[in-house]
Amino acid sequence: MRLVKLVPYQSSFLDAFIRWRSEPLSVRHNPLQPMTKLDITRMLESAGSDLSDLRKHETYRWFVVLEAAIVGSVSLKNISHSMGYAEIGYGIAQQHQRRGIATAAVKQLVAKVFTETRLRKLIALVHDQNRASSRPGEAGIRAGRLAARALHHQRQRGE
Questions:
Q1: Cα separation, 128 vs 86, whole angstroms
Q2: Is residue 114 part of a domain?
Q3: How many domains is the chain partitioned into structurally?
Q4: What is the mean pLDDT for each group of 10 consecutive residues in the chain (159 residues)?
Q5: CATH at residue 43
Q6: What is the C-alpha separation between 108 and 53, in angstroms, rounded?
Q7: Is residue 108 in a domain?
C-alpha cells in the first residue's frame, strides 16, 4: 500500500468532498441529509483536527491524501466524554475504493486517537450489507485492539 496521510481540512477540498458524498456507492448504505454547499462548508470548517482538547469541537475530521491527491476523509464524532468512547466515520472516493486506502486511513486514525487522547473505545457503525466498509474497521481491530462484531476498537489495559 502506498503511503496514506491524514491532513486537516482545507477549503480546496470542498468540491471533492461534495462529489464523494453524492456518489452511488457513498449513498447506497449511508443515507445522508441533503445539505447545501454552504451547510457543508460550515460543517467542514467547524470540525477540529487537533485532539489536545476533545471538548473544543463536536467533530474532528482529517482528509486522506494518497500521492498528493485528496481521496477521502475520516472523522471522530459523537464523543462521550463521560464514558470515554467515540464513533469513527470514513469515506473514500468511489474511484479509489477497494485498494486498502480506507483500511490504512482507519489504522492511522485509531493510532492517533489512542495516542493523543484518553478515549478508551472507538466504534464504527457499518450497514450490515456493506461488507467492504467493514474491512477498514476490522483491520484497525486486528492492529491490536479488542474486537467485537459491532466493529469497535478499545484501548488495551496499560495504554
A1: 20
A2: yes
A3: 1
A4: 88 95 76 90 97 96 95 95 90 88 90 92 67 51 39 48
A5: 3.40.630.30
A6: 19
A7: yes
Residue 48 β-bridge partners: 60
Q: What is the DSSP string of the chain?
A: ---EEEE---GGGHHHHHHHHTSHHHHHS--PPP--HHHHHHHHHH-B--TT-TTS-S-EEEEEEETTEEEEEEEEEEEETTTTEEEEEEEE-GGGTTSSHHHHHHHHHHHHHHHHS---EEE----TT-HHHHHHHHHHHHTTS---TT-EEEPPTT-
> pTM of the predicted model, to two decimals?
0.81
Cβ proximity of 5 and 65 under 8 Å: yes
User: In this structure, which amino acid lies at residue 99?
Assistant: R
In a domain, 37, yes or no: yes
Q: Looking at residue 99, what is its pLDDT?
A: 87
Instruction: Supply the Cα-derived Rg of the chain in whole angstroms.
Output: 15
Structure-block grid coordinates of residue 148: 467485537
Give CA–CA dist 87/107, Å, rounded.
14
Asked whether residue 159 is assigned to any structural domain, the reply reads: no
What local confidence, expressed as pLDDT, does residue 30 receive?
72
